[in-house]
Amino acid sequence: MGSRTNVWGVNSAGAVYRYTNNDANPWVNIPGTPLSDIGAAADGTVWGCNAAHEIYRYTGDQDSTNWKQINGSLVRITVGSRTNVWGVDPAGAVYRYSNSDANPANPWINIPGTLSDIGAAADGTVWGCNAANQVYRYTGDRDAANWKGISGSLKAIDVGSRTAVWGCDPADAIYHYTYSDTSPANPWLNIPGSLSDIGVGADGTVWGVNAAGAIYRYVGDLPG
């Protein structure tokens, strides 16, 4: 998800839906190829990948075809903005979109590291977790190490900004990053609830789905 007004999702059959911003009639189907994962940004950019690991960029705001296939192979994808698109391939290799279709045969830049899920924000913040549920923050824009290990155990993660990092652990418990590495033993705040996947917007909006596919929007920051 990108923001309070740009929320997208995929159901168990791969059908794509966009939130209507109206709880009385919340979802509109977006025609096109079935997808298995989707990422949306606050600026309206939307990308997805399907069960065959093919990659698509949403073009429905520009033409009637809805989706343009982009060369590559990804199982997870995340979108912080039009110029900040990241993904993970079936082997766990990490890729960042080159921001150019000029070389359609290879529009992705490999970033050293291995992850199973990834989240990217418009401000350039990127976090990920690997198959062992270890958590990492991308530091490749500052040092050669690329990734800094952060204490915790997550199977799913998403990032809306540097201060909006959320994840779900292997038991589906929900956690929000405390914005501080000064307490490295426990930099996470548990949020009551149970989710298997989670999405965070640049404005701090949080949505998630549980193991049964039920959809939830976080309201814990609103007056009781």
Protein architecture, described:
The chain is mainly beta and 224 residues long. It has a domain at 8-159: Neuraminidase (6 Propeller), CATH 2.120.10. It has no helices and 22 strands. The chain has strands spanning 8-10, 16-19, 27-30, 37-40, 46-49, 55-58, 67-70, 76-81, 84-88, 93-97, 108-114, 117-120, 126-129, 135-138, 147-150, 156-161, 164-168, 174-177, 188-191, 197-200, 206-209, 215-217. The strands form 6 sheets. It has a 4-stranded antiparallel β-sheet, with no helix packed on it. A 4-stranded antiparallel β-sheet has the order 8-9-10-11, with no helix packed on it. Strand 5 (46-49) and strand 6 form a beta hairpin. It is globular, with a radius of gyration of 17 Å. The mean pLDDT is 93.
Compact summary:
The protein is mostly beta strands and 224 residues long. It has strands at residues 8-10, 16-19, 27-30, 37-40, 46-49, 55-58, 67-70, 76-81, 84-88, 93-97, 108-114, 117-120, 126-129, 135-138, 147-150, 156-161, 164-168, 174-177, 188-191, 197-200, 206-209, 215-217. The model has no long low-confidence stretch (mean pLDDT 93).
CATH fold-type name of the domain at 8-159: Neuraminidase
Overall pLDDT level: 93
CATH class of the domain at 8-159: Mainly Beta
Low-confidence stretches: none
